[in-house]
Amino acid sequence: MTQKRTPLLDRHHELGARLTDFGGWQMPLQYSGVVSEHNAVRTSAGVFDVSHLGKLRVSGAGAGEALQRAMTADVQELAAGRATYSLALTDDGGCIDDVFVYRVQDDEWLVVPNASNVEAVAEAIAECGAEPVDEWDRYAILALQGPQAMDLFERGFPAPRTGSLNLHEWNAIDLGGEQGMVARTGYTGERGVEIYVPSASAANVFDKLVALGATPAGLGARDTLRLEMGYALYGHEITMEVNPLEAGLGWVLAWDTPFRGRDALEKVRSEKPRRKLFGIRCTGRGVPRQGYLVGAGDEVIGEVTSGNFSPTLGVGIALALGPRETLPAVGDAVEIQARGRKIEGVIVKPPFIQKGKK
Q1: 186 or 162, which is more confident?
Q2: Lowest CB count within 10 Å: 131, 150, 214, 310, which one?
Q3: Residue 98: which H helix or E strand, with range?
């Protein structure tokens, strides 16, 4: 895989970030530490470089029909200036990826997949009749998140007033003489925006946000933040072997549209999904990890799909997938089998923490 470079890589080096390979990109895992960065986002504001996310431009005659077939959400009903969360599926209902789709204008969309799945999503769209253009180097993407994020952004970039943006809306915005895009989207459960910054302006915008008080945050904190909200992560809660109904993502399926995989999922829906995603809050010491088995009594009832320490709760938390018919009730005790020892926990319904309306 060709190594790709975020426009902010030099800044990450200057800030002493610990870097990691992520989908072919060198990206910051942490700066000062995962817990401190996580807490900054929960209490004030943090800024993430998520430039590794895909940027697929889909446009032209027939693009809408093709994208509607490739995506589970009703993308053709989106007005320009709106966005939606969606899935791209196989014919048998497995998840190729989860994405955000932004409608730029009548015949143009921007599809944002995970870094490791850009080629797979582009191929899925092409198979449905449109040829996406990979604009991986056109933008940096900065996610400004936290209870103070909107005020901070408006102080730095007062026009347009982002406070007027509703969830899943976006506006064009001038960023140092170049046009970018600011969207009311995110992956933390906090208020905030994701800013699509022309690559040449990325360092200036990042520096300005930090100067205004945003804490640089890495992908480690992004993962603990999304896990506390029970948000799915590709390769964990959703895979080619896990369908959206098993992962609790039935709300993403626009059943009255002709999305690929619909027939297979209609059958799953009528017969009820075999498996179900559930949450575990640890009551004993230990941190659950993907792949650990979950037991109740003498019976294995599931397997951890994502697990980590929750900085907000101060305990381990996990999402797990198991057979629907053996799943205990919320509040029932379970044990996570962690490398020769057991971590005690209870079944909970995600999210693990409650946030106010955004």
Answers
A1: 186
A2: 131
A3: strand 95-105
